[in-house]
Structures are given as C-alpha cells and as structure tokens.
C-alpha cells in the first residue's frame, strides 16, 4: 500500500507539519517555564516521541511486505503516536500558554466546550469512529480503492490518525474538558474497542481485505502485528486510566487525622 500513496512531496509536507507542531509545543512549554510556571519535562518527551512516531509512519521506510508495512503505519500513527501525544497534554499547554482573555484562547475554549466537541469526546462515539473506520477500511473494498487513488489514500491515513487521537483523548481525559465521563464508562469502552480490534485482526489472518492480493505470509504477519501490537497499546491505555484514577482519588482524600496522644 505504501507504494501507491502520496508521493515524496506529500510525505515531506506531512513530516514538516508534524515537526512544526512539535516545535510549537516545545516553544510553548519553554515559555511557561520562562515565566516560572511548572511544566513537567516528561510531557515534552512524550509529545516529541509521538511526533517522531508519526513522522516515521508517514515516511513509510519500514521492514516487511506491503501489508505488514501498512499495519506498522497503522499501529504507529493510529495507536502509539496518539497515546504519546495525548500524554503531552497539548490542550492544557495551549490554554496555559495563551494570554488570558485573548482571542486565540477564547476561540480554543469555545471550540473545546462546543456541542460537537462534547459529542466527539463521548467515549462510545470516539470508539465507533475509530474502530468502525478500521472495520470499514479492512472489510470493504476501501483499502483496495486507496491503492489507486492517492487522495483517498491520504484521507484514509488522516482518518486513522485523527480517529486514534480522538479515541485516546476520550479514554484518557487528561486535558480539561467540560463534561468528564466516569472511569467505568471509559474502561468499558476501552475493553469493547480492544475486543473489536482483536476480532478484526483475527479476521484479517483468515481473509485479506476485499480486492487485495497480499501474500499469505505478509497477511499473517500483519494480522499478528495488529493483534499483539493493539493489545500492547490498549494495555498502556489501561495503565494510564488506572494511574490517573488513583492520583485523582489521592488528591480528593482528606489527610488522616493525627491520633491524640
């Protein structure tokens, strides 16, 4: 698939765009620290690593057959990179770096608190957009069509990245959102989405996407990569869920009373 996608110019534009976003993040973080505000370096490291994985996925110089390379791109751009980018807490950084009362900050807040945004970050909706898009891609002729239409190929990969970011953002809820959803809903959504991803991987092991002609070994390697790689990222998401739940519970708990002597 990677041989039929956008040309070198298109890939270079995408890599430059990723580099600019990472640079803006790092400059904003440096601005916060310069005025004396605390901002953990770990968030910068996570965001930068996410940008690097996105760039690697875009360039597509990866080992394996065509479908294995495509699946590596899917895992990097649609699952691993979004997790690292969300751990960088970009919305929190933007809100803290922008001038209070300024137009950019007001616009960002209005967009983040809008009704469409609330609907999109509702965990089940985000999961359907993410996993539903993957089922549509791999169990219909869409992937085969993308082989021959560079613009469709680019749109498919854009959706993989955007839907992965949305799903990760909705599950983790690390950045400030007006309507927070409970741990039970987010955990159940993650579990069901993980099951849907695993079933899709198993189906690909048995049958290729309609209209494609990948070799059996390439198909099996890609399906196994999707299955076990997806499990690894989903386990990481579960760890983030558990860690943030514990941290918030600890902050809400009152300090124990000292016993009377």
TrEMBL record:
The keyword Cytoplasm does not apply. GO terms for cellular component: plasma membrane. It is a multi-pass membrane protein. The chain crosses the membrane at residues 12-32, 44-63, 75-98, 119-138, 150-171, 183-205, 225-247. It is found in: Cell membrane. It comes from Thermomonospora cellulosilytica. InterPro entries: Caa3_assmbl_CtaG-rel. This is Putative membrane protein. It holds the Pfam family Caa3_CtaG. It comes from the Bacteria. Keywords: Cell membrane, Membrane, Transmembrane, Transmembrane helix.
């Amino acid at each position: 698939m990677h041989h039929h996608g956008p040309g070198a110019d298109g890939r270079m534009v995408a890599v430059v765009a990723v580099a600019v976003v990472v640079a803006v993040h790092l400059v904003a973080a440096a601005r916060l620290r310069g005025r004396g505000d605390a901002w953990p370096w770990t968030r910068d490291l996570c965001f930068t690593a996410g940008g690097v994985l996105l760039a690697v996925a875009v360039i597509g110089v990866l080992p394996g057959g065509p479908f294995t390379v495509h699946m590596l791109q899917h895992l990097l751009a649609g699952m691993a990179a979004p997790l690292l980018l969300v751990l960088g807490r970009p919305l929190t950084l933007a809100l803290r770096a922008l001038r209070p009362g300024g137009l950019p900050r007001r616009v960002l807040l209005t967009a983040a608190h809008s009704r469409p945004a609330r609907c999109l970050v509702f965990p089940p909706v985000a999961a359907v957009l993410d996993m539903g898009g993957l089922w549509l891609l791999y169990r219909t002729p869409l992937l085969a069509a993308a082989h021959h239409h560079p613009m469709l190929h680019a749109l498919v990969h854009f959706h993989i990245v955007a839907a992965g970011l949305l799903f990760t953002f909705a599950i983790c809820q690390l950045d400030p959102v007006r309507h927070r959803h409970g741990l039970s809903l987010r955990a159940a959504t993650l579990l069901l989405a993980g099951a849907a991803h695993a079933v899709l991987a198993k189906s690909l092991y048995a049958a290729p996407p309609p209209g494609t002609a990948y070799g059996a070994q390439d198909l099996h390697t890609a399906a196994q990569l999707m299955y076990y790689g997806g499990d690894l990222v989903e386990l990481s998401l579960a760890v983030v869920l558990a860690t943030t739940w514990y941290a918030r519970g600890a902050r809400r708990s009152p300090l124990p009373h000292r016993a009377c002597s």
